[in-house]
Specification:
By secondary structure, the chain is mainly alpha-helical. The chain has helices at about 1-50, 55-135. The longest helix has about 80 residues, at about 55-135.
Length: about 140
């Protein structure tokens, strides 16, 4: 029971660590994507201000910058959803870990009770054997 408990705890800890690492990686990607989106928006603003000289160039650059900003916003949104999903998985893993600990505690209590009962039976048998030896003598 102890080995199984340790194995389950190791597995849950490993799973939690992997989920945390993945969540951190995605959070970093989200931060980077958000930064890129902000830079794209700033670029869009600069393009609008500086490209008024040529309407054709202006329209192309604005369109490109808007598309880039849209793509970056979509990436940021996707990463945000992935982070939320990983947080839900981490919460689920934590809940399962608590459940396993509860089950382990209950199993340990049952094992302790069974051990005490067996010790009592052995003691009773030893007393019976001693009485039988005494009766024979």
């Amino acid at each position: 029971a102890e080995t199984a408990r340790e194995e389950e705890e190791k597995e849950a800890t490993t799973m939690r660590a992997a989920l945390e690492a993945e969540r951190n990686k995605l959070a970093q990607k989200l931060t980077e994507a958000t930064s890129r989106a902000e830079m794209a928006e700033e670029e869009l603003r600069l393009v609008v201000v500086s490209s008024r000289e040529s309407d054709a160039k202006h329209a192309d650059r604005v369109s490109e910058a808007k598309e880039q900003a849209r793509r970056e916003a979509m990436r940021a949104d996707k990463l945000s959803r992935e982070v939320q999903a990983l947080q839900a998985l981490a919460q689920d893993a934590e809940t399962k870990m608590r459940s396993l600990k509860g089950s382990l505690h209950q199993t340990e209590e049952q094992a302790s009770s069974t051990q005490a009962e067996l010790k009592q039976r052995v003691h009773e048998r030893e007393q019976e054997a001693e009485l039988n030896r005494t009766a024979v003598v």
